[in-house]
Amino acid sequence: MIAFEAATRRFGDVTAVDRVGLAIAQGSFVALVGASGSGKSTLLKLVNAIEAPSSGRVLVQGEDVATLDPPAHRRRIGYVFQSIGLFPHMSVAENIAIGPRLGGDKLPSGRIGELLELVELEPALAARMPHELSGGQRQRVGVARALANGPRLLLMDEPFGALDPVTRDALGRRVRALHDRLGLTTVMVTHDMAEALLLADRVLVMEAGRIVADEIPASLLAGKGGDAAQGLVAVPREQAERLAAMEREGEAP
Ligand SMILES: Nc1ncnc2c1ncn2[C@@H]1O[C@H](COP(=O)(O)OP(=O)(O)OP(=O)(O)O)[C@@H](O)[C@H]1O
Q1: Can you tell me the distance from the alpha carbon of 170 to that of 111, in angstroms, rounded to the nearest whole number?
Q2: Membrane as a keyword (predicted)?
Q3: Cβ count within 10 A of residue 1
């Protein structure tokens, strides 16, 4: 579905993405983790032509992204990001329909309701304005909007970053279920290694523009992937161990 061939993106002296070579298979759910500034967002933006490589190539379904019309290419790809970017003066229904509308298509009647149902929102919310929704509901609308064009590829940049842990967990599972049901290929940037391990089939760790680990969750949990990856795995593991220890202490007579 996606191939990076020595893909590099420089901003002045900063090499945000540094000679990345990578193939992402159709149907996979890939999480991209790493420290702030390691290049995760830039790598994602190379896929939907928000950024162009300074050198190297990015291919989507075998086509070099640089040769495609950017707006048409973007309309084929679902994109969800943390700040969502719903238009405040448009209703939920209008926000969901904006992508197809920009492409000259009108969503068939009933499709908005279907998309809302897909992300487990009441059809009645279609008439609301974004400020009348909770953060979690807004984020669900963002996912519905990303799916409006029926994309095969879903890119998510910290999609759940601003949500409370309960909503975040529920929406993560929902997106994974949608990924499976719709046969999507999903690439998700997250700061949260636990989320990556729980949702993804494959976890990539970025450091200074390079992919420094590329493992399945079971391998990361078994200690593979090198120091940077294991440093990230240690955080949720130590938290779980501390909680388990507290629970044991609580149980002691
Ligand atoms: N448009 C830009 N102009 C200049 N520098 C940029 C631009 N976009 C990104 N960078 C720089 O490229 C590097 C990688 O940024 P990027 O946003 O890809 O990292 P990230 O891993 O997604 O970070 P975060 O987790 O904080 O979102 C950073 O040093 C950043 O400052």
Answers
A1: 23
A2: no
A3: 20
Q: How far is C-alpha 154 from the chain's CA centre?
A: 7
Closest residue by CA, ligand 1 atom 4? 11
For the chain, give every domain's residue range: 1-76+183-253
- How far does the centroid of ligand 1 lie from the alpha carbon of residue 39, in Å? 6
**Residues in contact with 241: Cβ distance below 8 Å, sequence separation at least 6, in sequence order:** none
The Cα–Cα gap between 240 and 234 comes to 10
What is the CB neighbour count within 10 angstroms for residue 45? Answer: 19
User: Tokens representing 162?
Assistant: 């601003």
What are the pLDDT digits (tens) for 213-252? 999 999 999 999 999 999 999 988 898 889 999 988 876 5
The superfamily CATH assigns to domain 1-76+183-253 is P-loop containing nucleotide triphosphate hydrolases (3.40.50.300)
Question: Which residue has its alpha carbon closest to ligand 1 atom 14?
Answer: 39
